[in-house]
């Protein structure tokens, strides 16, 4: 599973954890997250996220 970081605020979406608060179940791959989903921290769109490696 991968992680994606918002380049605006630094919030990280972890595919393993999903984001249940927005109805995104654990294990949801980034490609399956709806195109209109917004960063829960700053409201940036999916286009403002980059794959993140620890």
Automatic annotation (TrEMBL):
Cofactor descriptive note: Binds 1 Fe(3+) ion per subunit.
GO molecular function, one term: iron ion binding
Record pathway: Hydrocarbon metabolism; alkane degradation
Binding-site residues for Fe cation, renumbered to this chain: 6, 9, 39, 42
Domain Rubredoxin-like span(s) in chain numbering: 1-52
The keyword Transit peptide appears for this protein: no
Cofactor: Fe(3+)
GO biological process terms held by the UniProt record: alkane catabolic process
Keywords: Electron transport, Iron, Metal-binding, Transport
Family listed: Belongs to the rubredoxin family.
Protein role: Involved in the hydrocarbon hydroxylating system, which transfers electrons from NADH to rubredoxin reductase and then through rubredoxin to alkane 1 monooxygenase.
Record-given protein name: Rubredoxin
Native organism: Caldichromatium japonicum
